[in-house]
Design goal:
The complex is a heterodimer of chains A (about 300) and B (about 190). Chain A is an alpha+beta fold and about 300 residues long. In chain A, about 30% of the residues lie in helices and about 35% in strands. In chain A, strands 1-2-3-5-4 form a five-stranded mixed β-barrel. Chain B has a single domain, classed as OB fold (Dihydrolipoamide Acetyltransferase, E2P). With about 190 residues, chain B is of the alpha+beta class. In chain B, helix 3 runs antiparallel to helix 5. Chain B has five helices and nine strands; from the N terminus they run E-H-E-E-E-E-E-E-H-E-E-H-H-H. Classes of the chains: A alpha+beta (about 300), B alpha+beta (about 190). At the A-B interface, strand 6 and helix 7 of A face strand 1, strand 8, strand 9, helix 3 and helix 5 of B.
Chain lengths: ~300, ~190
């Protein structure tokens, strides 16, 4: 692709976001970078896009007396700068040191994954708190949208609470396994990652803080779903508090007794589980044991069987 | 390579398992999972069953080897647990007979010389459960069995295989469902 075509492509990309830049101006910049500064074309393109993004941003924030907030359900394009009013629904463990925070944000229309990059040095979002977040960029991966918080993002805590719509899934089935890494675990006090043998992948040897969780497998006879219960829900599911779990582990001199005890009260039982879907996990927000079967259920099945005969 | 998908735990009655003898692999690979195709078209590698533990015995000579029987309203699931099912061995040794138990396990096939194929369950986990879980399993298994029969009638994935091997008459399995579900009706 020559620089003229590249310039037109960049122009189109910005015009999709409602920003008018002339292609010749873009081309000029590209030429300068490529010819005078001997920058590879790819890097030149990136540099120009970054330049106009920043400019665009300043214009947006300068001109905006009234900020327009996007609704989460309306997020359907990539690389768009938007503002959101959201509540922090869930925070996950970042799997890379370049990520400061990762989790789910929600508004009344749904929830969306967010990533806050370490180099953006943004204030830390707290679980359950509501914020106005300006200048975030939409991203898409495998058909799912997310938003990315960057150096230009502005976070303002809100006094009122943003209601979060139920973009949750409800599934039912049997817990047929509890995976390793469940039960009594330790987390790094710095980054909340799980500490393995006193060692945090990011912060080295640390004194971990105890926590409870269950990485379970829910099976309905057709599909299996990995379900993640946080401490509060694990305590409710198993009837074992963190304090009791610690006590048991110390008595047995073995952390595994906790997971074993949890297996004994959950595996083989039927549950209805509600939660937020991520590619790998259903992050459980609520659950109940399946209710006792009713007479109507029995007669319905009998009728269905008779019909097939 | 994509993560290997965990095998779903299928629901079926003991009567249907007893009459299932068609084992197959989807690939020639020695490590490819083996499936049992049942007369209603269930493709099973792992199963989830709930019933009454009616017998258990450690028949091992040098090491633990437990044999147990779990009854549902239609028949019995034979269970064998040895040194590679340590968790289940420990659980079996402490569970009292009779108790309602839930079993998650893989199917095991035994070809006796000249004799019929015998299918048993190699348990991964055994847990004592309450009557409400047992009743729910009986009902759920009825629903799953009927669903499979409905799919067979509409011509699903393994229909030809099932029909060639077991024939086309599914009415005995509908009768099994009715028999099982009737045990849930409270006597008044």
């Amino acid at each position: 692709m020559n620089l003229k075509e590249l310039a037109e492509q960049i122009r189109d990309r910005f015009s999709n976001q409602g920003v008018k830049i002339s292609a010749s101006e873009i081309e000029q910049r590209l030429h300068s970078l490529v010819d005078d500064f001997k920058v590879p074309t790819e890097e030149a393109s990136r540099s120009v896009v970054a330049y106009y993004s920043k400019l665009n941003l300043q214009q947006v924030s300068a001109s905006a007396t009234e900020v327009i907030y996007s609704k989460i359900k309306d997020i359907n394009t990539e690389d768009k700068w938007i503002n959101v009013r959201v509540r922090v629904v869930q925070l996950w463990e970042p799997n890379s040191p370049s990520i400061a925070q990762v989790g789910l944000l929600g508004d009344e229309t749904g929830t969306i994954k967010f990533t806050s990059w370490s180099n953006a040095k943004l204030p830390i979002l707290k679980d359950g708190k509501s914020y106005s977040i300006r200048n975030v960029v939409t991203k898409s991966w495998q058909g799912r949208f997310s938003i990315s918080l960057n150096k230009a993002s502005e976070i303002t805590p809100l006094d009122e609470e943003v209601a979060v719509g139920r973009a949750e899934e409800e599934i039912s089935g049997t817990i047929i396994d509890i995976q390793s890494g469940s039960g009594l675990i330790k987390r790094c006090p710095e980054c909340n990652r799980v500490v393995v043998k006193g060692h945090c992948a990011e912060h080295g040897t640390v004194t971990g803080l105890y926590d409870l969780r269950i990485k379970g497998v829910l099976d309905d006879g057709e599909v299996v779903t990995d379900v993640l219960f946080n401490r509060e829900l694990t305590e409710r599911l198993t009837g074992m508090t963190l304090a009791e779990a610690k006590e048991r582990a110390m008595e047995a001199l073995d952390q595994n007794v906790v997971a074993d005890a949890m297996k004994a009260v959950t595996i083989g039982r039927y549950y209805i589980v509600r939660g937020n879907k991520t590619p790998r996990w259903l992050l459980v927000t609520d659950f109940t044991e399946a209710p006792q079967i009713k007479d109507e259920d029995i007669s319905a099945v009998l009728a269905r069987a008779q019909e097939l005969l | 390579m994509a993560l290997k998908q965990r095998e779903v735990a299928r629901r079926l009655y003991a009567k249907e398992l007893q009459e299932s003898t068609l084992f197959y692999k989807e690939h020639d690979d020695a490590y490819a999972p083996q499936y049992l195709l049942t007369p209603t078209g269930a493709k099973c590698n792992r199963v989830f069953v709930v019933g009454t533990l009616t017998e258990k015995e450690n028949v091992g000579v040098d090491a633990d080897y437990w044999r147990a029987r779990i009854a549902d309203p239609t028949g019995v699931f034979p269970i064998y647990a040895g040194q590679y099912q340590q968790q289940a061995v420990t659980q079996l040794s402490s569970i009292e007979v009779p108790s309602f138990v839930a079993v998650i396990g893989k199917l095991n096939v035994f070809h006796a010389d000249e004799g019929p194929v015998k299918v048993s369950i190699r348990p991964e986990f055994i847990n004592v459960v309450g009557a409400e879980t047992r009743n729910r399993w009986v009902l759920e298994t009825a629903e799953k069995t009927l669903e499979r029969i409905e799919i067979l009638k509409q011509g699903g994935e393994n229909v030809a295989k099932v029909h060639d091997y077991y024939g086309t008459d599914t009415s005995p399995y509908i009768a099994v469902v009715i028999e099982a579900v009737k045990t849930l009706v409270k006597e008044s």
